[in-house]
Design brief:
- This protein is of the alpha/beta class.
- Helix content is 30%, strand content 25%.
- The strands form two sheets. Strands 3, 4, 5, 6, 7, 8, 9 and 10 form an eight-stranded mixed sheet that branches. Strands 1-2 form a two-stranded antiparallel sheet.
- Strand 1 and strand 2 form a beta hairpin.
- The chain is globular and about 60 Å long.
- The chain starts with a helix and ends with a helix.
- The mean pLDDT is 94.
């Protein structure tokens, strides 16, 4: 909804009932940063950390109805993900955040006086909160397509050319793949920064306290504003 409303606000003339045509000057320098909360399938992440999206796995179906821009890395991520048990839920698509945005977020995060840790990597986007994110409730046990979803996501590794370590899934949430995918079609620069409020991997599952969430969210908002202004 947000992407379509921005698209209409910037590229639709309600007086003439016309959209900007191909070849005409399009809206310039539109920057979108999703700021929110998430869980993490990474054993290396802790509650209160920040997750910055570089790529996204779409476990939803929003962008299946669009022809997304792609490249070799995006195609490779989709291939890797679809070789896992995610195929049991119909498979996934992949997309990426804008480099100007995720690099800007990482730079601003590095400059935080609090020294808060951030994790740059892959975001997994689900279309719901329960089975879509590997949560099994009551008599749905045995009826979920990917019951070990958190473990599956935690094992995904994406080789990045020129980098020593593969990129991993750093968080799970419900919007990033659509925000980044649809923005990439329109040429908008989009990314995401989320506060990790639930650690869902490892021996101890942990949840952030309200004070931890409030402090981390204040940092996240500051980072996002700095990035939008400077990107």
């Amino acid at each position: 909804i947000v992407i379509n409303e921005v698209h209409a606000l910037k590229e639709y003339n309600p007086h003439t009932n016309e959209w900007i045509k191909d070849g005409e000057e399009k809206a310039k320098n539109i920057r979108i940063v999703r700021v929110g909360t998430c869980g993490s399938p990474s054993v290396d992440a802790e509650v209160g950390d920040l997750a910055i999206s570089r790529h996204a796995i779409g476990m939803d179906n929003t962008c299946r109805y669009y022809k997304l821009p792609t490249d070799a890395t995006i195609d490779r991520l989709a291939e890797i993900a679809n070789k896992t048990d995610l195929k049991n839920a119909g498979g996934v698509y992949a997309t990426s955040a804008c480099p100007d945005i995720y690099n800007g977020l990482a730079k601003a995060a590095s400059a935080l006086p609090s020294g808060r840790k951030y994790n740059l990597g892959i975001t997994a986007t689900g279309s719901g909160f329960y089975g879509c994110q590997g949560r099994i409730v009551g008599r749905f046990a045995g009826k979920v397509a990917v019951p070990d979803l958190v473990a599956v996501l935690g094992q995904i590794e994406l080789p990045i050319e020129g980098e020593d370590k593969p990129e991993k899934v750093v968080n799970i949430e419900m919007e990033v793949s659509a925000v980044c995918g649809l923005s990439s079609i329109l040429g908008y620069r989009a990314g995401a920064l989320c506060v990790i409020v639930a650690k869902r991997a490892g021996d101890v599952v942990d949840f952030a306290t309200p004070d931890v969430v409030a402090s981390a969210m204040s940092d996240a908002i500051s980072i996002a504003l700095a990035t939008v202004i400077s990107a």
